[in-house]
Design goal:
The protein has 299 residues and is α/β, with parallel strands linked by helices. The protein has 11 helices and 13 strands. The strands form 3 sheets. Strands 7-1-2-8-9-10-11-12-13 form a 9-stranded mixed sheet. It has a two-stranded antiparallel sheet with strand order 3-6. Bound molecules: iron/sulfur cluster (2 copies).
Length: 299
């Protein structure tokens, strides 16, 4: 079984307990306006192009079977419309101005990479976290990788937007030790900000809670979109209503996604103002005042 993976991050300390390896799977059914990993959204391999790194050597021009690259009067023009993501140009670009995003990997390959750091997980109560993109969107691979991880004695986390058929979510219950469940917007604004309705997500969350699952709620806060008192209160009330909720993570907007979207050639680059640390602390205090669940912010 294979899946399209766009990154494997080692020594992660924010995506579940202890030291972890995070496997980022490519492709997501949501299109959050503020996505800080826009390269995770498409289910296809893509190409990052960073013009500032290009030294104009022309190796990509001769490598490309589709004639996507043209160097003209010192300018590098890249026609993405014709690109078939074969990666030949990136393999010739020693300046790393071109980079393939997404690699097909087998469960065995990913597990081998994950297990290389087992000692660190054992000493820190860490483990493996599957993230994305949306791991549930590549369900068979996710199930097999979680199963293999459990058999190898690893603690497993699944970071999810929760938008998937309930039978798939239910099938993973015995394989996930901790769910990292996104709470992105008020029910009224959810579709506008993410492209999908909130109800199936909430139904899945209630279902795993009734089944005895443990979860952390992961809450991106984007200034002017979802950092309202109303939304914060809804997060607190949701956490209070879940038996298995252990923690609320506040995730203030990070502009990392803007540069990535530009490197993907996107025309719809989203921008929001950075949320000041003092304001994040205020949100943390507000949530703490309305829930008994631990609230965590990265400040
Ligand atoms: S191979 Fe890389 S550095 Fe050379 S022209 Fe192409 S993008 Fe620029
Ligand atoms: S990935 Fe392949 S088709 Fe796309 S620009 Fe590079 S060489 Fe051309």
């Amino acid at each position: 079984m294979e899946a399209l993976v766009f990154d494997i991050e080692k020594f992660a300390v924010h995506d579940g307990p202890g030291i972890r390896t995070v496997v980022f799977m490519k492709g997501c059914p949501l299109h959050c306006l503020w996505c800080h990993n826009p390269e995770s959204q498409s289910f296809k391999t893509e190409l990052f192009f960073t013009p500032e790194k290009c030294i104009g050597c022309g190796w990509c021009v001769s490598a490309c079977p589709q004639k996507c690259h043209i160097i003209q009067e010192g300018r590098h023009l890249f026609d993405r419309e014709k690109c078939i993501s074969c990666g030949r140009c990136a393999s010739k670009c020693y300046a790393e101005a071109l980079e393939v995003v997404g690699k097909r990997m087998s469960v065995a390959e990913v597990l081998k990479s994950v297990l290389a750091d087992k000692l660190f997980y054992d000493n820190s109560n860490g483990g493996v976290t599957l993230s994305g993109g949306e791991p549930l969107a590549q369900f068979e691979f996710t199930r097999e990788l979680l199963d293999a991880s459990k058999k190898a004695g690893l603690h497993t986390c699944l970071e999810t937007c929760g938008y998937a058929p309930s039978e798939k979510v239910r099938a993973l219950l015995p394989l996930v030790d901790l769910w990292l469940w996104d709470v992105k917007a008020t029910p009224e604004m959810h579709k506008q900000f993410t492209g999908v309705e909130y109800k199936p997500i909430l139904d899945n969350l209630r279902m795993i809670d009734e089944a005895g699952a443990k979860m952390w709620l992961r809450c991106p806060l984007i200034h002017g979109l979802n950092d309202s008192e109303e939304h914060l209160l809804q997060i607190a009330e949701l956490a209070n209503s879940l038996r298995g909720c252990q923690r609320i993570d506040i995730e203030p907007y990070h502009p990392l996604g803007e540069g990535k979207a530009q490197r993907l050639g996107r025309s719809d680059v989203f921008h929001a103002d950075f949320i000041d640390k003092a304001i994040v602390k205020k949100y943390e205090s507000f949530l703490t005042a309305h829930t008994n669940v631990q609230v965590y912010s990265p400040t």
